[in-house]
Amino acid sequence: MIESTAIEKTADKLKLLGEQLHPQRRMVHAGDAIYQAGESFGNLYILNSGFFKLVNLAADGREQVVGLKFRGDWLGFDGIASGHYVCDAVAMDTGEVWSVSYDALLAACMTSTSLLRVLHAAMSREIANDRDSLMSVCTLPADARVAEFLRYWAESLAERGMRTDQITLRMTRAEIGNYLGMTLESVSRALSRLARDNVIGFAEKGRRDVHIPDVGALSAFVQRCLAPVPALLH
Q: Are the beta carbons of 186 and 142 closer than 8 angstroms?
């Protein structure tokens, strides 16, 4: 269970950013691009509501989902080093995005240590999430990857004060597979196994609404997948 302090911290950070930066606010809808790879960098974006994905385009034209973002997360750090955004940031549903000038943000941080700590925390959180995502793809078997993906989604919602017992996946099975390094068929099989084990349920067959009675059961499922198979007695 996520403590209420985590929810309060997200709200407090958004309030601080709104008061000190006076960001431009923009409503977006599913499919809208916040920015695209190759565009000149100038702004960072803070998510006040909605769900977003980061997409890289390979040289051969393949699209790869490389990140998922929720309320309170930031977009655009990828453009700081090169001066250009290196991926597409795309809305997965209706939401609100705050836009702030990077130069104005740096100037504000010079006079506000609280704002500077929020910026550093956002950067640190992105590094940690990227590390955890890589660990999942590189070390977990297929079924466990899907369970860990659902656990991450549910706990991200919990941290923002949203319900976790019934979540709506804003991604297709193919997009989930793309993000997790799996085929669509493997994702479907993993979801079916989770449902057979009563770890999750579906409101309607084939729909994106997933019932999660106990988020902790997803973590337990991952651990069972990693447990060594006992040797057979001879």
A: yes
| This prediction's pTM | 0.86
Domains defined along the chain, listed by start: 4-130 (2.60.120.10), 140-226 (1.10.10.10)
Q: For residue 232, what are the CA distances in angstroms to 154, 158, 226, 229? A: 37, 42, 18, 9
Question: Tell me: the pLDDT tens digits for 83-141?
Answer: 999 999 999 999 999 999 999 999 999 998 989 999 999 999 999 988 888 888 888 99
Q: What pLDDT shows up at residue 205?
A: 58
From residue 42, alpha-carbon distances to 62, 75, 117, 230 in Å are 27, 12, 21, 56
pLDDT per residue as tens digits for the range 146-176? 999 999 999 988 888 888 888 888 888 999 9
3 state SS of 121 = helix
DSSP letter assigned to residue 78: G
What confidence score (pLDDT) does residue 1 get?
Answer: 46
- The answer for 228, left when phi > 0, alpha when psi is -120 to 50, beta otherwise, is beta
Dihedral sign, CA of 226, 230, 232, 234? positive
